[in-house]
Amino acid sequence: MSKKTLVEISVNNDVKLTAQFEDNATTRDLISRMPFTVDMDNLYSREMCHRYGHGGLPTDNAKDKGYQVGDISYWPPMGSLVFLYKQNGEVFEQQPIGHIDNDVSFFSKFNSAQVTFRVRA
Description:
By secondary structure, the chain is mostly beta strands. It has a single domain, classed as Beta Barrel (Cyclophilin), CATH 2.40.100. The chain contains one helix and nine strands; from the N terminus they run ββαβββββββ. The chain is globular, with a radius of gyration of 13 Å.
């Protein structure tokens, strides 16, 4: 069984979410940066996205796969950190990061959001 790290996510200094991060190269890099805040934009009416740019984060297990609502993934081609809040059945290259345990459907109401990540003690 792989080690998971609990991460607190705050959206617009208001909504608090809890995520379980996998143990891989991408998450270790993100965790080493915590706490940090990024701006995320609503894309394709299914995901919130922050673009680090191609090569912005390391990967060690990126592959084409589907997703579940609540998944947090990294899309290497554009260096995109994404929260997937609505399902459309797409399969795409991604490095799994983790999963948000809370309902994430509220993201559909935002054009953008300021999101803060911190390791939960």
